[in-house]
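To start, an entry.
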Amino acid sequence: MSDKMVDVTLHINENISHNDREIFRDSLLYMNGVMTADCHDEKPHLVLIGYNPDTINSINFVKVAQEHSLHAQLIGL
């Protein structure tokens, strides 16, 4: 198993509540290969995700956003 971790920022277009952001963040954390997922009230449109690129592809984060009826784009670091 690789300990490789990369970061990507996911921009969410919609204005969603703190609780909805937490639910979305938790759904990311349940994904195999995701190590961290952080969102803050100061920047509610951004979610910073740390993941193992050998395990999961970052486009899956956009797909999960779509499953939550959100529009999102990846922002590379």
